[in-house]
Write a structure and sequence with these properties.
single chain; 257 residues; 4-stranded antiparallel beta sheet; 13 strands; 16% helix; globular; disordered C terminus; binds calcium ion
Length: 257
């Protein structure tokens, strides 16, 4: 009995620990990353304004789109800081990441919040909550993934930037670049529903707001090929895109590949 208690205690202690060192070659540590809404409300609001109302698919966007599979640590920031911006999902999704195509690691195991577009009163997150991936070194490519309804469904689909790895072969992640005060940001939105848009015979809304995060310390390659600085965006950013745009991007990338 005492042994069981000890093991349980150790398990709880391990679960509560804020840092974790990877067993793969790309070592890192995860720590609490503060809350962006508290540390920079203006920037949080800028990102959050890009999250369109559920199922409104199209918005203006002045942020350059990045190839979602081109993201990498900028080597400048001391850490990669991942902030939860919002979510408009019925699912209880999970957010994972991998470094240099290594194993996937859990970052947020329940992307739900009492404050989000589709609120869950028992969701663990406040808008703006962050985690930091620290102690990186060398050239680090970074990928993010959503496990659809992973909180409740251990067999939920995992969607990432590589469309060939996605169960439906469709784009599920959009990434947009934002630079401010020498910080490199990427704003990322995920679609958690399988398949095509309902206007094309599928059941998905393709709204790309089912998990929305802003990541500091990461850069990527622009889809349009430009490298010049762009003016800071206006109020309306509109992260969401129509499926047709995603399909166009996908086809173009297939040609390149
Ligand atoms: Ca949604
Ligand atoms: Ca959706």
């Amino acid at each position: 009995m005492k042994g069981t208690f000890l093991r349980t205690s150790l398990l709880v202690a391990a679960t509560l620990a804020t840092s974790f060192v990877a067993t793969d070659a790309n070592a890192f540590t995860i720590s609490g990353g503060g809350n962006l809404r508290e540390t920079d409300a203006e920037l949080f609001n800028l990102f959050n304004s890009s999250v369109n109302i559920e199922r409104l698919e199209m918005g203006e966007n002045n942020l350059p789109e990045l190839f979602a599979d081109s993201l990498k640590w900028d080597g400048i920031a001391g850490s990669v800081d991942v902030f939860f911006i919002n979510e408009g999902a019925g699912y209880r999704n999970q957010l994972l990441f991998s470094l240099n195509d290594g194993p996937k690691h859990m970052l947020f195991d329940d992307v739900a919040s009492p404050e989000s577009i589709l609120a869950n009163s028992n969701g663990p997150l406040m808008l703006g909550d962050g985690k930091s991936i620290e102690d990186l070194s060398g050239n680090i490519g970074i990928d993010f993934f959503v496990k659809a309804n992973g909180k409740w469904n251990s067999n939920g689909n995992v969607y990432g930037a590589d469309v060939n790895e996605n169960a439906d072969g469709l784009q599920h992640m959009i990434a947009r670049e934002f630079k401010q005060d020498n910080d490199n940001w990427v704003l990322i939105g995920f679609e958690d529903l399988y398949g095509a848009h309902y206007s094309e015979g599928g059941r998905s809304d393709r709204d790309f707001n089912d998990v929305v995060i802003a990541v500091r310390g990461v850069t990527g390659d622009r889809v349009d090929g430009t490298t010049t600085e762009v003016p800071e965006p206006m109020v309306t950013l509109g992260l969401v895109m129509v499926g047709a745009v995603g399909a166009t991007t996908w086809r173009r990338r297939q040609v390149v590949a």
